[in-house]
Each structure stands twice: as structure tokens, then as C-alpha cells.
Amino acid sequence: METIFTEKHRLRDAKTELFGGELVSPHERPSRAEYVIQRVRDVALGPVSVPADFGLDPILAIHKPDFVSFLQTAWERWQDAGFKGEAMPTTWVGRRMSDKRPNFIEGQVGYYALAGETSISGGTWEAAYASAQVALTGADRINKGAQTVFSLCRPPGHHATSDMYGGYCFLNNAAIAAQFYRDTGAKRVAILDVDFHHGNGTQDIFYDRDDVLFVSLHGDPLETFPYQLGHADEQGSGAGEGFNVNYPMPPDTPFAVWRQALAKGLERIAAHAPDVLVISLGVDTFENDPISFFKLKSDDFTTMGADIARAGLPTHFIMEGGYDVEEIGVNAVNVLQGFIAERGA
Question: Helices marked H in 53-123 — which ranges?
């Protein structure tokens, strides 16, 4: 299995995160990707390739131009305003209040932020752009005949909407890849999000569409981030009704229960008959993950990969969450090795 990876992920190295009422060192940090790529190399999973550059057009097929422009310039404008720390929102556009975009950078940070934990720092745009190219290069490999590929994206993407960032996500890599598949000939695409946290950004992007099925297994949003979106009764709207499927689960969910939800999700994906399956691969379902509450063990991720392989579809793994425990590398690669063992590279 080929892995697409870029050292440019290191450019995203924020120093502050709002967590538990304190400013702490971020959970989403460069070491996350380093654990994974080192494990890929240690087990000789397959070749590791740098991404090609597909430009802004595939990004703008998902994200609004004003939002992209904001991300490109936010750090410089924040510094120009005289602020000394990293860019974090101090105000949001509240419900039932004006949705007009402020002119000043401080107001724009809050306008485009969906959560307050994620700071914008130097190199954020460059790393997010490179991460999207990692996803697009993986999609290009599938288009050219590969049956599976691993896009080791960092920063992650599934919380980013078309015009909002948060949850450590700036550009929605899985959504960008899914749209790229559609724009290059795929009639139907399915996204299976196995990250602990609901992919609220991905849901929001495709909620009224029937060409991209979104299936998510995640912690109950009544109990955990992102708190907004991810409930079982959110099934799509308009043409997309029935094409959004959520499986929220409570604290301490064991793998046996989680796997039952995966089986149901894969049944729904089979009914959709997609040309390609995109996996938002978060391994923060691990029992020792610092910001999650499921109870999956390392061996369970191997089983997960085998279960996904039995879908028999061209499969594009895109890295999402899993937070700075050394096992992130073991667990992510276990999924890929389980997949390979069941179906081959």
C-alpha cells in the first residue's frame, strides 16, 4: 500500500490550545504524523511518496473563496494588528444575530471559527494546503488504478465546513477528495468516518446531496465534541435525505458494540454502490486516547481494517484524529495491515 506524506505538515506547529479553561500545548501536534510515518516505515507497509500539487481549484470546489482567502492571510493580518499570541477567537456571531462578516481580523477569526480550541499560527495555511494535496494525490492514484492508498494528512480535516474551521481542522481533506472523485468521473462516492469525533464538517458539506453518502461512527455529541451535529435523526435534507447516516455511541463503548455499528454502516455503503470508498481514519477510538472515551484496543484496529476490506471497493484512507499517544502509529497502521491481510495491497 502506498502512503502519501509530506514533511510540510511540520509547518503547523501551534503552541496554544484552549482546553479545560487553560491554554495548553496542543493535542494536535507534529509528533502525531511522525509516529504514523515511522510505523509505516518500520513495518515496510509500502512506498512513501510526496504529493503532487493540484492547485486551489479542487479546494475551491468545496470551500468558499472568502474562507480560503481568510486562511491564506489570517496569520499575517493578526500579526499586523499587533497581537502577540496566536490567533484565537474572542467573539462569535451568535444565533439570531447579524451574520455580516467583520472587516477587522479579530472579528473575522470569530466569524470563521466553529470552536475556540484551535489557534491559527505561522505555517497553518501552508500545512493545511499541503495536507489537501496529500489527499488529492491519493485520489489521483485511485483514479489511475490503485485499489487502495493511504493519505497521511496533517492537519486533519473532517471538522472543517465549507466556510468554518475548528477541531484542529482547516480544509476538509476527505470532502475535497470526494468532490475530486466526482469531478473526475465517479458517479457515487461514500465516506466512512471512523474517527471518535463526529465529522460535522463533512456532514454539513454533503447534507443535501445524494451522490456522496456520509456514514459516521462516533461519540454521542450530547457528551463530547463537536456537540453540534452527529445525532441519529440527522439523515440528510432535500435530495440528500437518507444519504447521511450517524451512529452515535455512549461513553465506554467497547469494540464489540462499535463493530456492530460498523457492520450496519458497511451495509448502507454497499446499498449505495459507490465507485470509491473514502475512509476518514481517526484512531482516537483507542482506549488510552487523551480526549476520547471509547475502549478499542490496538488489535481491534486490525479487525477494523479487515472488515472494511470485505466491502470490496477501491478504498482511500485519509488520516484524521488520534492524539499524541505513541500507539497512534501502531493503531493507524494496524488498520491498513488488517485491510491488506484481508484483501491484499
Answer: 57-60, 65-80, 105-112
Range list of β-strands (E), the chain: 2-4, 17-19, 22-24, 48-49, 148-151, 189-193, 212-219, 244-249, 276-281, 315-319
Mind giving me the DSSP string for 252-278?
T--HHHHHHHHHHHHHHHHHH--SEEE
**Can 159 be counted among the known catalytic residues?**
yes
Return the pLDDT at 97. 80
* pLDDT given at position 34: 97
Q: Which of 321, 298, 333 is nearest to 1 (CA)?
A: 333
Contacts of 157 (CB under 8 A, 6+ apart): 131, 132, 135, 169, 170, 171, 172, 173, 174, 175, 176, 201, 318, 320
Q: What angle do CA 334, 338, 340 make, to 5 degrees?
A: 115
Residue 344 falls in which region: left (phi positive, over 0), alpha (psi -120 to 50) or beta:
left
Q: Tell me the CA distances in angstroms from 55 to 21, 60, 133, one per residue in order.
A: 38, 10, 8
pLDDT of residue 95: 63
- Among candidate residues 9, 27, 158, 159, the one labeled active-site is 159
What pLDDT, on a 0 to 100 scale, did the predictor assign at position 155? 98
Report how far residue 34's alpha carbon sits from residue 52's, in angstroms, rounded to the nearest whole number: 20
According to DSSP, the β-strands at 2-4 and 48-49 are parallel
Domains and CATH numbers, the chain: 2-63+121-343 (3.40.800.20)
Q: Are 32 and 144 in contact (CB under 8 A)?
A: no
Q: Please give the span between the terminal C-alpha atoms of the chain, in angstroms, as a whole number.
A: 5
pLDDT, block means (10 residues), the chain with 345 residues: 98 96 95 97 98 98 98 98 96 78 94 95 98 98 98 98 97 98 98 98 98 98 96 98 98 98 98 98 97 96 98 98 92 98 85
